[in-house]
Amino acid sequence: MRAVLLLVAVLAVGCGKGGEATTGASAAKPERPSLTGRVELEELAATYRTNEAKADDLYGNRRVTVEGAMKKLTKTDSGYFMSFEHGAHVGSELPVVAYFPASAAPALAKLEFRSPVLFSGRCEGWEKNMLPRAVAIRDCKLEPWPKVAAPTPKLSDEAAEQKAAREKGAP
After folding, report:
1. pLDDT of the chain along its 171 residues, tens only?
2. Torsion 118-121-123-127 (CA) sign
3. Strand, coil or helix: what is 159?
4. How far apart are CA 115 and CA 108, in angstroms?
5. Euclidean distance between CA atoms 38 and 33, whole angstroms
6. Cα dihedral 23, 27, 33, 38 in deg (nearest 10)
7. What distance in Å separates the CA atoms of residue 59 and residue 123, rounded to the nearest whole number?
8. How far, in Å, CA of 110 to CA of 121, rounded?
9. Closest by CA position to 113, among listed 51, 68, 159
10. CA-wise closest residue to 66 among 91, 49, 47, 92
11. Residue 125 and residue 64: Cα distance in Å, rounded?
12. Distance from C-alpha of 98 to C-alpha of 85, rounded to nearest angstrom
């Protein structure tokens, strides 16, 4: 009888190890409210490099809109991941990767090396299974660039004088 009780006690303690699995802590956290405005890739990477707690507070598990320059697009089993050119150090890569679904392939196919991209996705912080480490942004989608109004052409001085004369009614 003692042996059975001892065995039950050992099994109960052993099953409780790694509390994450038994407490549900590994379940996905609910997404936090989206950030408004754009985040620069360099700023996102620098914040994660220098203060991960601050970066998680600012960006962790939030949808962010990010702009950057594509360095490389790689196919995965479930879609694509994009790495980015470091603006300050041409040729080097930022430690940020964006994961796009396979359905984004037609739009992604139009991009070239160093193409400017604007995209939104959920920031998950450091990718734990990647070396070198990189900040992962998942569930990404390309965003259209905002339309910028065309500047009004400036008239030469002579053209401005002629226009003013016409408006006054002078010949």
Report:
1. 444 333 333 333 333 333 333 333 334 566 676 666 788 888 888 899 899 999 999 999 999 999 888 999 999 999 999 998 876 555 556 788 999 999 999 999 999 998 899 999 999 998 877 777 889 999 999 998 776 655 656 656 666 677 677 777 655
2. negative
3. helix
4. 10
5. 14
6. 130
7. 6
8. 20
9. 68
10. 47
11. 12
12. 13
At 25, give phi and psi (nearest 5°): -65, -20
Tokens of 94: 């930022």
CB atoms within 10 A of CB 123: 25
Closest by CA position to 98, among listed 140, 47, 38: 140
Alpha carbons 59 and 37: distance in angstroms, whole number: 12
